[in-house]
């Protein structure tokens, strides 16, 4: 044990963040929302139309969500870690042994090179190698994944000593070699540059070998190591455990690397994580977001968690790109989170009432659990302006009314608040705008279908299904247009396409009516607010507008357009009736 003076050095510090201006902004937006609700309630005495009642429901929901948002952001804190104090408090032999689990499920949707980079970065962490073990849990039982890990274990014998020798900070090879070393730095020696080029060439050979193998239809089954993989089916095989590397060189060697694929049988029910994870961690099931459900359970038992966001960011995943895969992932999350909310044993409400989950923690869990529920008021509120433009009615304050300034301040205030948040995180206004659009798109597409999935499950009509999303690699085809939204024939695109068709029709009808003087702001019909809102929805869903005229994966399939068109016509008829 280290001396008493060094024991007092903290391993981590909690630093409260300055938040007065942000709190003031949040309370201002909350007061504007409450004022809008007050206006809506007072206007019901003279106008009890279905449109106004739906507007009241949506605005009450948005106010509730904002209250949850204020709770989450009310007292932020920054956690600073001091890993350099670790050896001052403990001897190396006193450091705990750590087992790291890496999970993968499909070698086609999750390319092995991504798994390999994850494993290499974990094997190279600054920790005694004889106290570290990495287990790769392959739920697909893929010989391609196993072959890739064999190649990775060979490369690790060069990569890990290189990282230690030159104190490399970014230890995932694909990220480290994505940039050339800065030749202007005086600390770059000729030895480093030579080693850097050699290691990079070896990594490129590794990457090429794994990618060439991935393109092959025949998995590499040569050699005794692959006997267990011959004649096996993905859902029907014995357990496979392979020690790819055993540490025999102590703290300065290479950590243990073990491949695990659990036994699977067609008639035996199973979960999505390896049995070892179920036993050691206690993963819970009944939700497609079992990590959230498990975290909620252990927090309800009194476990305290810490949000740690180091610089540079250390906990980054590989998100799917393109519309279909991205929306599928959001649908899975929204479905799983809503399942957590309605779980009879581990709901956050149950955790607060009967266990040790704090009230504010409960509100935080509720905030993320209602993603799917958010789809209903968002879709309704997006359709209300177009309904008013078509029928010549109004549900928002007129420009001549004082409450119009209230609605305008709320619209501007919320957008400025969220933009400032992005600026504080070092993001650009373009990133803010892209995310604003994607939030609206996912709400009425992926979240809506996640909501329907849970409804059908609760009614006993169907079960939710875990779907693995494709993890794309960094490089893209030459013909690709980075940043452009892609489509396929998924039903999730129907609601977004329908919304765009309705907005285009509504704006066209309103402009014709205004030009003829039949209906407009002067005749107590739809005013500027409805037109602005309808135009804002159309701009937000501009990727769908482009998709109506796009080709290939950038165009919305005709099957989706026809179904959306039928829904749009039904909505227009409903408005007129």
TrEMBL record:
Give the protein name, as stated in the record. Cellulose synthase-like protein H3
Do you know which InterPro entries this protein is assigned to? Cellulose_synth, Nucleotide-diphossugar_trans
Q: What is its main location?
A: membrane
Its GO biological process annotations read: cell wall organization; cellulose biosynthetic process; plant-type cell wall organization or biogenesis
The cellular location(s) given in this protein's UniProt record come to: Endomembrane system
Record carries keyword Transmembrane:
yes
Task: State where UDP-alpha-D-glucose binds.
Answer: 110, 139
Q: List the PANTHER family.
A: X-BOX TRANSCRIPTION FACTOR-RELATED
Database matches in Pfam families: Cellulose_synt (PF03552)
One CC-aspect GO term: membrane
Any idea which GO molecular function terms this record carries? cellulose synthase (UDP-forming) activity
Alphabetized, the UniProt keywords read: Cell wall biogenesis/degradation, Glycosyltransferase, Membrane, Transferase, Transmembrane, Transmembrane helix
In its UniProt entry, the species of origin is given as Dendrobium catenatum
The way it spans or sits in the membrane comes to: Multi-pass membrane protein
Q: Which stretches are transmembrane? A: 48-70, 440-459, 492-515, 527-544, 556-575
């Amino acid at each position: 044990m280290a001396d008493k003076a060094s024991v007092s050095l903290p391993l981590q510090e909690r630093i409260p963040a300055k938040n007065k201006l942000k709190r003031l902004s949040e309370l201002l937006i909350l007061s504007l929302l409450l004022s809008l609700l007050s206006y809506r309630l007072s206007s019901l005495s003279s106008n009890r139309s279905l449109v106004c009642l739906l507007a009241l429901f949506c605005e009450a929901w948005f106010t509730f969500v904002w209250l949850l948002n204020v709770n989450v952001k009310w007292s932020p804190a920054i956690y600073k870690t001091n890993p350099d104090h670790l050896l001052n408090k403990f001897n190396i032999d006193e450091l705990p042994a750590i087992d790291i689990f890496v999970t993968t499920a499909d070698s086609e949707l999750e390319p092995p090179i991504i798994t390999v980079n994850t494993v290499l970065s974990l094997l190279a962490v600054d920790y005694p190698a004889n106290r570290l073990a990495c287990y790769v849990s392959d739920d697909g039982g893929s010989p391609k994944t196993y072959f890739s890990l064999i190649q990775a274990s060979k490369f690790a014998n060069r990569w890990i000593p290189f990282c230690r020798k030159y104190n490399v900070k970014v230890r995932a090879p694909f990220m480290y070699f994505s940039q050339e070393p800065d030749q202007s730095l005086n600390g770059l020696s000729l030895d480093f540059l030579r080693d850097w080029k050699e290691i990079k060439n070896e990594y490129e050979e590794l990457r090429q070998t794994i990618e060439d193998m991935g393109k092959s239809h025949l998995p590499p089954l040569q050699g005794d190591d692959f006997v267990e993989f011959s004649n096996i089916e993905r859902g029907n095989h014995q357990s496979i455990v392979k020690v790819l590397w055993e540490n025999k060189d102590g703290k300065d060697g290479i950590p243990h690397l073990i491949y695990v694929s659990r036994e699977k049988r067609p008639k035996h029910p199973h979960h999505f994580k390896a049995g070892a994870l179920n036993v050691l961690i206690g993963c819970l099931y009944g939700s497609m977001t079992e990590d959230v459900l498990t975290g909620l359970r252990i927090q309800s038992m009194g476990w305290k968690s810490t949000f740690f966001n180091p610089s540079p960011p250390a906990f980054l995943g590989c998100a799917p790109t393109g519309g279909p895969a991205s929306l599928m992932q959001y649908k899975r999350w929204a479905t799983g989170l809503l399942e957590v909310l309605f779980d009879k044993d581990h709901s956050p409400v149950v955790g607060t009432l009967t266990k040790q989950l704090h009230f504010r923690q409960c509100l935080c869990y509720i905030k993320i659990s209602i993603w799917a529920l958010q789809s209903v008021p968002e879709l309704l509120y997006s359709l209300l302006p177009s309904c008013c433009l078509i029928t010549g009615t109004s549900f928002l304050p007129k420009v001549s009314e004082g409450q119009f300034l209230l609605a305008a301040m709320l619209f501007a205030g919320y957008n400025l608040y969220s933009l400032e948040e992005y600026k504080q995180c070092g993001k650009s206004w373009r990133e803010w705008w892209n995310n604003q659009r994607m939030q609206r798109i996912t709400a009425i597409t992926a979240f809506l279908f996640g909501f329907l999935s849970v409804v059908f499950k609760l009614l006993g009509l169907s079960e939710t299904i875990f779907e693995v999303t494709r993890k794309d690699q960094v490089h893209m085809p030459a013909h690709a247009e980075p940043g452009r939204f892609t489509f396929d024939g998924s039903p999730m695109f129907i609601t977004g396409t329908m919304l765009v068709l309705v907005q285009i029709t509504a704006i066209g009808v309103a402009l014709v009516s205004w030009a003829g003087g039949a209906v407009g702001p002067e005749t107590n019909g739809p005013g500027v607010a409805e037109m602005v809102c309808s135009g804002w929805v159309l701009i937000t869903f501009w990727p769908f507008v482009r998709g109506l005229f796009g080709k290939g994966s950038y165009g919305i399939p005709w099957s989706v357009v026809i179904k959306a068109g039928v829904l749009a016509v039904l909505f227009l008829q409903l408005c007129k009736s």
